[in-house]
From TrEMBL:
Species name: Halorubrum yunnanense
Family, per entry: Belongs to the NAD(P)-dependent epimerase/dehydratase family.
UniProt-listed InterPro entries: Epimerase_deHydtase (IPR001509), NAD(P)-bd_dom_sf (IPR036291)
Protein origin, superkingdom: Archaea
Family annotation (Gene3D superfamilies): NAD(P)-binding Rossmann-like Domain (3.40.50.720)
Descriptive protein name: NAD-dependent epimerase/dehydratase family protein
Residue span(s) of domain NAD-dependent epimerase/dehydratase: 7-279
SUPFAM superfamilies xref list: NAD(P)-binding Rossmann-fold domains
A Pfam family: Epimerase
Transmembrane segments: none
Length: 351
């Protein structure tokens, strides 16, 4: 099967969204990027020097002038329905992206992540062009159940101390009977709507429960995008705060590998499962402390680091079991972490 011909990317000015825009524009598809350009206002620790939306909106205009850029909000159901019509695929990356912001303003978090996803699905269901949909979900849907898995402490990291999780967290891990955050709940709500619409045959759709995605054109901050936040702070010689002890582990996935996973579904969605854990898997993991060492080896720089209390909703270890994506989508990560970070640093220094 071939990639879709007409693609709408919600959150098209975001980090992941802009790479989806680029991916399909490079393949000659008709691409629409929709964004409300609100990121800086909604993240407390973001600032204009790390304005992802403004940077990527301009990047798209300068490099892909054929892309139709639409400034609109997924909460505006009528406007969204008008934009969705005519596309055969929707990459839904628009969202409120931070746990911290969801704790401060859970209503906006719900309206954007849960209601916004519902609006996308309804627009797709009603569109004559019958688009397939992929949603950017999150590992936070599993809540504190992740922390119920026993871990052992090693010199620079935690790791699972249960052989059942050697390959990482599967999609079957329970989402019930545990503490969540408003962000985790709002994303899970959208995630479940995706599964429901898919299972009823209303829309060909899938939710991709992402681990840590990184790559060029990402401007991280304390609230979200920690890989870029650590890297940029190191390159700028700005002090960093680590919440916890720095031994927490994540699997990391280069953004272009993520977009390939989206496309693998959108190119042939019929009969496919509606939810996937997607990340770097056990072969691409790092702790915060180990990442600081990698940055120093890559850049020769090391910034000042202080430590603070663990933050609500944090997980000591989260690693994705990507076997379902491998089996069903014939997909696996291709870019290792060192190579991906070389690309990130090269992009940052070329700006």
């Amino acid at each position: 099967m071939s990639s879709p011909d007409a693609v709408l990317v919600t959150g098209g000015a975001g980090f992941v969204g802009s790479h989806a825009v680029e991916y399909y524009a490079e393949r000659g598809a008709e691409v629409t990027a929709l964004d409300n350009l609100s990121r800086v206002e909604t993240l407390e620790t973001a600032d204009e020097s790390r304005n992802t939306a403004a940077y990527n909106w301009n990047y798209i205009a300068e490099n892909y002038p054929q892309v139709d850029r639409v400034q609109a909000d997924v909460r505006d159901e009528e406007r969204l329905a008008d934009v969705v019509e005519g596309h055969d695929a929707v990459v839904h990356t628009a969202g409120q992206v931070a746990v911290t912001a969801s704790l401060e303003d859970p209503r906006t978090d719900f309206e954007v992540n849960a209601e916004g996803t519902f609006n996308v699905l309804e627009a797709a269901r009603n569109a004559e062009s019958d688009p397939a949909v992929v949603m950017a979900s999150t590992n936070k849907v599993y809540g504190d159940n992740v922390n119920e898995i026993p871990v052992r402490e090693e010199e620079t990291r935690y790791w699972y101390d249960d052989p059942d999780y050697d390959a990482g967290i599967p999609e079957s891990l329970s989402i019930d009977d545990c503490e969540h955050t408003p962000y985790g709940v709002s994303k899970l709500t959208g995630d479940l709507y995706v599964q429901d619409y898919a299972d009823r045959g209303a829309v060909d759709a899938a939710a991709f429960r992402m681990s840590c995605i990184y790559g060029p054109r990402q401007f991280g901050n304390e609230d979200q995008g920690w890989v870029a936040h650590f890297a940029i702070s190191t390159l700028r010689d700005e002090p960093l705060t680590i919440f916890g002890d720095g031994k927490q582990v994540r699997d990391v996935l280069y953004v272009k590998d993520l977009i390939r996973a989206y496309d693998a579904f959108l190119s042939d969605p019929e009969g496919k499962p509606a939810v996937y854990n997607v990340g770097g898997g056990p072969e691409n993991t790092t702790s915060l402390l180990e990442f600081l060492d990698l940055l120093e080896a890559e850049t020769g720089a090391r910034t000042d680091v202080s430590f603070d209390e663990w933050r609500e909703g944090d997980q000591k270890v989260y690693v994705s079991d990507v076997s379902r994506a491998r089996d069903e989508l014939d997909w696996e990560p291709e870019v290792d972490f060192e190579t991906g970070m070389e690309c990130f640093v090269e992009w940052w220094e070329s700006r």
